[in-house]
Amino acid sequence: DAKFEDEGEQKHVGGRQAQYDSDDVVETMDGAETAQAAIERQAEAIVLGQLLLRGDKKRKLVDEGFNRHANHDTNLPEWFADDERKFRGPAGYAMDLPEDLMEQAREKLRAINASSIKKVGEAKARKARRQQRALTKIKKKASQIASKSDMSEREKSKEVEKLYAKTHQKRERKKVVVAGGGKAQGGRGVKVVDA
Length: 195
Prior knowledge:
Elements: E1 3-6, E2 9-12, H1 35-53, H2 55-65, H3 78-87, H4 99-147, H5 153-167, E3 175-179, E4 190-194
Parallel strand pairs: 3-4
Antiparallel strand pairs: 1-2
Helix pairs in contact: 1-4, 4-5
């Protein structure tokens, strides 16, 4: 059985043992769940759901859920909870999950995760097309300015510089101000919201 070390406590994971506690979420240093751990947790939930749909498996899951370790009381004394955590084992809690169902669920989840990259690619392509259209418009305007004979070369270059500077201007985002007790000052570039 594969095991993770989580603050000195060993836990079974994956297709071998199903333990559905909120503590079983594997987290990185910044508090975010790793992609592999998320897939594993979601696959486990999918397989448990599939087993619950079958009558005989559902009964078995429910029966194995009732034992002397099943209820996690929150208002126990601290020393008792520590003692329980130290000595309870996974043997009475879990039901073995079929490895083939686990693998199918993992593959589906990996496919779903990979397909979202397609949307990102499409968005980048749209942005590139938009920029290309804007650039061709500017080139057209620049060639029109360059072909004018009534302007000096210096004026022409300044006009072309202005055109290209407009493409690099970023739109200024509105500042959000939370109106606490009194009146918050709004104005141009400021959005006032309720607390």
